[in-house]
Specification:
Elements lengths: L1 E5 L7 H7 L3 H4 L7 E6 L3 E11 L2 E9 L8 H13 L5 E7 L4 H7 L3 E6 L2 H5 L4 E3 L2 E3 L2 E7 L1
Parallel strand pairs: 4-5
Antiparallel strand pairs: 1-2, 2-3, 3-4, 5-9, 6-9, 7-8
Length: about 150
């Protein structure tokens, strides 16, 4: 298993990016300013894009694992890599997600706790309704972890 930064042609992983953020123009808002890491284990299994949000906060904008390899620890491994790499440079690692029974427990297992909510984020910023586990996502839930 190897984790490396991907500096060029980030959109070559568009199909993987779209698993975590299903509207391409939303991905375009952060893909170039963000730093992308890929986890390889006999091919790319997982990706993560992080951005500097100021005030000592690093944000995970996108993290996704190939569907056939979900639940095998790749996402958690990539988050632990990010946390270790940026400890001392940033004080907070945060992530915004929908209030879903699929994503919230995953982040809580990765030592994140709920921080704040942005009302109507998904309905205001996406051109179609977003559903996860049958739940219509409306608000963005932010979770944070101290580094």
């Amino acid at each position: 298993m190897k984790i490396r930064e991907l500096k060029e042609n980030k959109k070559q992983l568009l199909s993987l990016l779209l698993l975590a953020d299903e509207q391409e123009d939303m991905i375009d808002r952060y893909i170039e300013k963000g730093t992308m890491y890929v986890l390889e284990d006999d091919g790319i299994k997982c990706e993560c894009v992080v951005t500097d949000e100021g005030n000592g906060t690093l944000e995970i904008k996108n993290i996704a694992t190939e569907p056939d390899f979900q639940g095998k620890g790749y996402g958690k491994t990539l988050i632990e890599f990010i946390a270790a790499k940026y400890k001392g440079t940033y004080s907070i690692l945060q992530v915004g997600t929908g209030d879903s029974p699929l994503t919230i427990p995953f982040y809580e297992k990765c030592e994140f706790t709920r921080s704040h909510t942005v009302k109507n984020f998904f309905t205001d910023n996406y051109d179609h309704p977003i559903y996860e586990c049958g739940i219509h996502l409306v608000d963005m839930v932010y979770l944070q972890r101290k580094l």
